[in-house]
Specification:
Length: 183
């Protein structure tokens, strides 16, 4: 029997695998970000230059209050389909984090982010031992709201002028999920 090859993924679904950010992903990530500007604007501005990616990845890799995950297509040689970050991780009695995410244009509308976000949620509530995850979404971002809803998040409230994005303070809806609410 041939030796088994270990999976490069932290978690796998039928079509995607979940793995951490690396500095070596910069060229592919930034190319995908540039190709996806129209999809992301005005909601999201992922790094699209080598220097910006390196600083972004360094924060996700080095800061214990952050964790970054790449959603990779298993059938396409591990091509990066999107990303999910857990930011503002607070431990002790809170065990919580705030999610940010984005699909890349070539993968949008194919269900890959739903599968990937489900993997991140299970990883966060499993090995990471978090209890609560929150997603803050601008009310006009219908695709992001639909993803949060598909993955079992519940609308908790509205925060006016919550985050400074694209030169202005933007309203956000707060969507949350706790370990007990997981489907």
């Amino acid at each position: 029997m041939p030796p088994s090859v270990p999976s490069p993924y932290l978690a796998e679904g039928p079509r995607v695998g979940l793995r951490p950010f690396t500095f070596e992903d910069g060229a592919e990530f930034t190319a995908r970000a540039r190709e996806s500007r129209d999809l992301h604007h005005p909601w999201l501005f992922p790094p699209d230059t080598a220097g910006a990616y390196r600083a972004y990845a360094k924060r996700l890799i080095d800061d214990p209050a952050r964790a970054g995950f790449l959603i990779c297509e298993k059938d396409d040689g591990g091509a990066i389909a999107g990303f999910v970050n857990i930011n503002n991780i607070v431990r002790d009695g809170f065990q919580s984090g705030a999610l940010g995410y984005g699909a890349f244009a070539h993968a949008a509308g194919r269900g890959l982010m739903s599968e990937g976000l489900d993997l991140v949620v299970r990883h966060a509530f499993g090995p990471m031992r978090l209890h609560r995850l929150e997603i803050n979404v601008q009310p006009g971002n219908a695709a992001s709201i639909a993803l949060a809803r598909r993955c079992g998040f519940h609308l908790e409230g509205f925060s006016p002028r919550m985050l400074h994005i694209d030169g202005a303070w933007r309203d956000h809806q707060r969507w949350a999920l706790t370990r007990e609410m997981l489907r």
